[in-house]
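Hello support,

Our group uses your service weekly, and this is the first time we've seen a run hang past the timeout. The protein is SgcJ/EcaC family oxidoreductase. I'm not sure whether the cause is the sequence or the server load. Input pasted verbatim:
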Amino acid sequence: MTDDESAIRQVVETWMAASRKGDLETVLSLMTDDVIFMVPAKEPFGKAAFAAAFKGMGEKIDGSSEIVELKLLGDWAYIRNRIDMTATPPGGEPVRRSGYTLTLLRKEGDGRWRLARDANLLASA
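Update from on-call engineer: The timeout came from a worker crash unrelated to the input. Re-ran successfully.
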């Protein structure tokens, strides 16, 4: 495994751990400033909308992630990722979602890999 592949796997692990802790600042640091998210039935959205949604959730998030495919393309890379997650709103019932994401990452000027585009295909399980 190359250093870049290890660094990309670390981005995913850090993202999942920070999400479990509700650590928005860490999650945001793993994104490019021009990040775009695509999810079913919504218009694509960027970093500010992601942050607002994260803050508004108030949910406990737990889950797992498995990188199924990782391909380096110079300063870009993509991963196909299988995610299984459960979100539990305060005083509510847990909602489990699972499925795949297709994520583009970009190696930025500081040498760090960050998420640049994400197509999230998770569905209620």
